[in-house]
């Protein structure tokens, strides 16, 4: 009898533990740590946590880059918290582009839904991998490597990206250099650009000369 009681208790604990490990819907009211958000209590989780509807509407491309990124990371889509996957919608007006950037925490896979893009990345040995992407094409951008996309077609472009992290991070080179108050003289010394070019870029991207 005691053996059966122990067996039943162990099975119940195992079952509860397995269910608890199925997912960890992010509790967005709690701080986000290095491992993501803490888990919502089970009774607070609903199917809505696993649905994201933000891709229904095109992003606003009326900006200097003529581009818009709509993220579905753990902050916007709590159901992916802890699942090592997330998504984003990329809208590019004619002539639009994403500035040179990296995702420190994730590899990106991009699928082209509409339009034609010039896209590429630069390896750690400074080799350039550059191509044209058309509707239905898919391209991978390895984690941490500098990459970009440019709409070279005559119509707006649409693409969707998936990432191997719920919080891939993004680091824009141009904004890191010119959208701040780093002295022009320092930028001259470290980029070999002249002061007029630096001032123009700072003005364009919202930096302070």
Automatic annotation (TrEMBL):
Domain Cupin type-1: 53-199
The keyword Amino-acid biosynthesis is assigned to this record: no
PROSITE patterns: GERMIN
Keyword hit for Transport: no
Matching Pfam families: Cupin_1 (PF00190)
Family matches, as InterPro entries: Cupin_1, Germin, Germin_Mn-BS, RmlC-like_jellyroll, RmlC_Cupin_sf
CDD domains linked: cupin_OxOx
Main subcellular location of this protein, as a coarse class: secreted
Keywords, sorted A to Z: Apoplast, Disulfide bond, Glycoprotein, Manganese, Metal-binding, Secreted, Signal
Signal peptide limits: 1-20
Gene3D superfamilies: Jelly Rolls (2.60.120.10)
Stated family: Belongs to the germin family.
Protein name per its UniProtKB record: Germin-like protein
Organism: Hibiscus sabdariffa (roselle)
Lineage: Eukaryota, Viridiplantae, Streptophyta, Embryophyta, Tracheophyta
């Amino acid at each position: 009898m005691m053996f059966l009681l122990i067996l039943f208790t162990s099975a119940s604990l195992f079952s509860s533990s397995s269910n608890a490990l199925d997912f960890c819907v992010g509790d967005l009211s709690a701080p986000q740590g290095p491992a993501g958000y803490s888990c919502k209590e089970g009774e607070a989780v609903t199917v809505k946590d696993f649905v994201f509807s933000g891709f229904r509407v095109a992003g606003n491309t009326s900006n200097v880059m003529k581009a818009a990124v709509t993220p579905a990371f753990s902050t916007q889509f709590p159901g992916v918290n802890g699942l090592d996957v997330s998504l984003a919608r990329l809208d590019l007006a004619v002539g639009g582009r994403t500035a040179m950037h990296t995702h420190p925490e994730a590899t990106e896979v991009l699928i082209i839904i509409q339009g034609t893009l010039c896209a590429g990345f630069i390896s750690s040995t400074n080799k350039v991998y550059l191509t044209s992407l058309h509707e239905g094409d898919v391209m991978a951008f390895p984690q941490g490597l500098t990459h970009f996309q440019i709409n070279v077609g005559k119509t707006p472009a649409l693409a969707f990206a998936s990432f191997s992290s719920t919080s891939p991070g993004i680091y824009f080179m141009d904004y890191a250099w010119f959208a701040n108050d780093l002295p022009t003289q320092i930028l001259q010394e470290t980029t070999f650009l002249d002061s007029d070019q630096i001032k123009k870029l700072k003005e364009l991207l919202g930096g302070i000369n």
